[in-house]
Design brief:
The protein is α+β, with helices and mostly antiparallel strands. It has 20 helices and 22 strands. The longest helix is centred in the N-terminal third of the chain and has 18 residues, at 165-182. The protein starts with 8 loop residues before the first helix and ends in a 5-residue tail after the last helix. Mean pLDDT is 86; it is low at 333-371. The structure holds adenosine-5'-triphosphate and magnesium ion (MG). Magnesium ion binds next to helix 2.
Length: 560
């Protein structure tokens, strides 16, 4: 016979704590989120043994009055929700009203708080395993300090799962780093066993915060990402192709101020990088996604680390588009090649040696132009050039390589006056429908700068008198018709000159299925290495596919 009984509150809290508090990092995350929700401008976190022995979080937020404080420890007690509707548009990090109850259920704790603008004395509650056994008035500043000792002292099963202090510390710092990136304006100081391990002064920009956390050199090399459309704003910073990591830990996505784990968004980020990174390398990306609170549901999991979007595809596409924009901008590679260290803002702390710098020590190897694609090995299918460095094998699409090279060459010729033009011995009259003629007129200026010349002919036709030198082998009629097609076609938003340039580059570039001599391949690859954007063609197609030697060794089980 089953005997069903109601569980005592203390046990219910312990069970709930199992979901919310997995390890010290989760307790730290909840406490810092509470401080952020309380409007703190400065938060201090003191840890012992990575948080397993002690977590103390102090903030200068709004604090709690003596009446509120005991309530904060109760389950389902929150100041952040009042009505059903509030749950549909959550604007705070917390909302479940259970984090403090959960943490206190599995630790020895004291909570001290004084409300901003309240009486001079604050109140301190202390206890263990969720039971309050001490209540005293203490003089203190406005704000809140929560101390959590001996986490899991009364849940031995969970205690056994704690890892070494170093491992717990790194999990805790990862959670803190993410929150610090999500809220650059808040000062955050973290110590472990008395030593500073993370120091982030209040920052005016996300980039400044990245500098404080990951180093100024690195921050200076990151690309700026920004896109705002369809009610979704995506902004942040992303690494250029030659700054990579060995894992995905530094792809950080923040949704309305909340760092989230969203597999689909992570995949979206990786998809944007796929053409330019080897399979075992990962980018470093901090993206803040902002959208109406009603379009995202944070009430999916007790840790609040997962969210559900009303329009997930839209958000994923926005992320990919925003990253594509940034990666295809010529500065993507310029930044990687020719960066200058940003001036350190006044008051920014240097990294304490051996602390967070050691955790994020894996920065990119210095970039050298000459070895970008290494040595040319040959050609495959008369279409792909194969080259290799010690670390990677590259497959380069010869047509797109050439297109990129010509595009940039034409660009610089335009900048210094105009591209060389070849006058036709026999000007060629062409019949064009009126719409095509109108289009040609509209594009006259960029076309002329590229080396075309044409007059109006008899009966509304056009007479071509010169073509760009690069295209002198093409039949003028086909050339002009193709130009009209291209200029009138899709992609109409791109600047006129760029589209005309891309057209000429594409027509003049060596085609697929063309055997090349070794010197020609070497020339092409060397020229590509000199371009500003060697990873995408002017139309946005990738140029290079790469395989890392590391992958090959692993697959072939070669251990040396
Ligand atoms: N640092 C703090 N400063 C001011 N008030 C706080 C602080 N920490 C907690 N509180 C108050 O205590 C309440 C309970 O906190 P708790 O973290 O348990 O729940 P919550 O933040 O409302 O929701 P969640 O369980 O999702 O975190 C909060 O709603 C808030 O009013
Ligand atoms: Mg909370």
């Amino acid at each position: 016979m089953t005997r069903i009984r109601r569980l005592p509150d203390a046990l219910v809290n312990k069970i709930a704590a199992g979901e919310v508090v997995e390890r010290p990092a989760s307790a730290v995350k909840e406490l810092v989120e509470n401080a952020l929700d309380a409007g703190a401008t400065s938060i201090t976190v003191e840890l012992r043994d990575g948080g397993a022995a002690l977590v103390r979080v102090s903030d200068d937020g709004v604090g709690m009055s003596a009446e509120e404080l005991p309530l904060s420890l109760e389950r389902h007690a929150t100041s952040k929700l009042a009505t059903d509707e509030d749950l549909d548009a959550i604007a705070t990090l917390g909302f479940r009203g259970e984090a403090l109850a959960a943490i206190c259920a599995v630790s020895r704790f004291t909570v001290t708080s004084r409300a901003r603008g309240g009486p001079d004395d604050g109140l301190r509650l202390g206890g263990e395993g969720g039971a309050v056994i001490q209540r005293i008035g203490v003089p203190c500043d406005a704000g809140t300090t929560i101390e959590v000792r001996d986490l899991f002292f009364n849940t031995p099963a969970r205690l056994k799962f704690l890892k070494s202090p170093a491992t717990e510390l790194s999990a805790t710092l990862r959670a803190l780093t993410q929150l610090a990136l999500a809220h650059p304006e808040v000062q955050l100081r973290v110590t472990n066993n008395g030593r500073p391990v993370l120091t982030a002064p209040a920052a005016a920009t996300l980039k400044e915060r990245i500098g404080a956390l990951w180093g100024w050199d690195l921050a200076g090399r990151l690309l700026t990402v920004g896109r705002d459309e369809h009610g979704v704003r995506v902004h942040g910073h992303a690494s250029p192709p030659d700054v990579t990591r060995g894992g995905r830990d530094d792809v950080i996505v923040i949704v309305n101020g909340r760092p989230v784990r969203d597999p689909a968004l992570l995949q979206a980020v990786l998809a944007a990088y796929r053409p330019i990174l080897a399979r075992d390398r990962f980018p470093l990306v901090v993206l803040a996604v902002e959208l109406a609170p009603a379009d995202v549901d944070a009430n999916v999991h007790p840790t609040k680390a997962w969210v559900r979007f009303r329009h997930p595809r839209l958000v994923q596409e926005m992320v990919v588009a925003a990253l594509h924009d940034a990666l295809q901008r010529p500065t993507a590679v310029a930044a990687a090649v020719d960066w200058t260290t940003e001036a350190r803002p006044p008051g920014a702390a240097a990294l304490a040696p051996g602390t967070q710098s050691a955790l994020f020590a894996e920065t990119a190897a210095p970039y050298t132009k000459a070895v970008r694609f290494g040595r040319v090995l040959g050609q495959v299918q008369d279409t792909f050039i194969v080259a290799t460095t010690d670390d990677e094998v590259f497959f380069l699409d010869q047509h797109v390589v050439h297109e990129r090279v010509l595009f940039e060459r034409l660009e610089s010729e335009l900048a210094s006056g105009g591209a060389p033009s070849q006058a036709l011995l026999f000007p060629e009259p062409i019949d064009l429908p009126p719409a095509a003629r109108a289009l040609l007129e509209r594009w006259r200026a960029p076309l002329e700068r590229l080396g075309f010349a044409f007059d109006s002919g008899a009966a509304g036709g056009v007479v071509v008198t010169a073509v760009p030198t690069l295209l002198k082998g093409d039949e003028p009629r086909r050339l002009l018709e193709a130009a009209v097609d291209e200029l009138g076609g899709a992609n109409a938003a791109a600047p006129a000159v760029d589209r005309a340039l891309a057209f000429v580059a594409c027509r003049a570039a060596v085609k697929a299925d063309t055997p090349l001599a070794r010197e020609e391949m070497e020339r092409l690859v060397a020229d590509l290495a000199q371009t500003r954007t060697p990873y995408f063609c002017p139309h946005g197609r990738p140029i290079v596919s790469r395989v890392s030697m590391h992958d090959i060794r692993r697959e072939l089980k070669r251990t040396w």
